[in-house]
Amino acid sequence: MAIRRSVVKQRGLPSVVQLLLSPTPAQADALANAVRVCNQAATFVSRLAWQQHTFTVLELHRLAYYPARAHLPELGAQAAVRAIARVAGAYANRRASKKRAHIFRPLGAISYDARLMSWSRDTRTVSLWTPTGRVHVSYAGRQEDLKALDTLPIGEADLICRRGMWLLQVAVTLPKPAVREPVNGFLGVDQGVANLAVTSDGVVLPGPVLTGTIGGNHHARALRERRHRQRQRLQEKGTSSARRVLRRLSGREHRMMTDVNHQISTYVVREAERTGRGIALEDLQGIRGRVRAHRLQRRTIHSWAFAQMIDFTSYKAARAGVALLLVDPAYTSQACPRCGCVARENRPARGRFVCTGCGLAGHADHIAARNIATRGAAGWAAVNQPHATGLPSARRDRESKPPASAGGS
User: Fold this and answer.
1) Both 345 and 200 in a single domain?
2) CATH number of residue 266's parent domain
3) 206-225 pLDDT, tens digit each
């Protein structure tokens, strides 16, 4: 049984705070110029990387640094370094599926590091690099975000222009709490398309336990279908007013599903923390490539935001010190949690489970969540099994690795 443990490798937990910048008209023009220049440089480097089939950061730096500086004389040295890193990151995970060079949008977000920005917390201003010189822009944000910015280590930041507003999304490092032992077992969560999430306690999410505006899974699907039909009508119409409405509606469905995933993940983590349990989720990596769906179902499958829900649950569990495991999803909806019988005949209908061995019946998603919880408990026991050295296996493996060599022989 494949078990993947969610591990944060940093000393602390990464988080992001969002700030609203208030530039003057001249500063806004300078920031827009910086965004255009950095994206032009990234596109130039991307085409060069695609032609030479060079995608690692070090080799791409040797190949493209000086040509990029010569192609765009106003590009700074560190801005060129960040553009090369963006290109390497763009090709890191999707290089095999790409058919042409990656093109960066002219006004896409650009990244700043410590050499491109500096902070003045007393005056609430940030100094940002632009091709025409540094600009000192005032910023504002939520009280908790400003407090995190004042007290926590700061990493890189993304400069974003969204509908005329300038935003700065800053990475900060939170202190990492110790993971508590799941003394009461695991809370299993089954993810699906018809029901976004069903827990091993039998709770269907979204549902009455959530306080948001989405009443349930049927409500969420109806809203998404309505948005899809609305976009189709406007795109077929093609007038300037239709395009204006499309711009106004852009991102609305994405924001809705992001909010729903936040609510689901928050409920799951709080429930596991309250009951002294860990969280077990299915490892759904690569499922879109494995599942063969009818063409009428492809849009639904490919718009399934399961990865986002897993990411949200992972970082919230890490913040709360709740154990989280990703387990093998194979046959979770066809296996009986009572007698262990695995058969396709156990699923006479999509949402119905009836065991052919012992007769156990119930909702298929609830049965799958119970199996996931059982696999989570078994996986945790395997990862933390005792050893003759007196250390759990996970800690033993970590401490048995030889230290990295500090120099050559």
Assistant:
1) yes
2) 3.30.420
3) 988 888 778 788 888 888 88
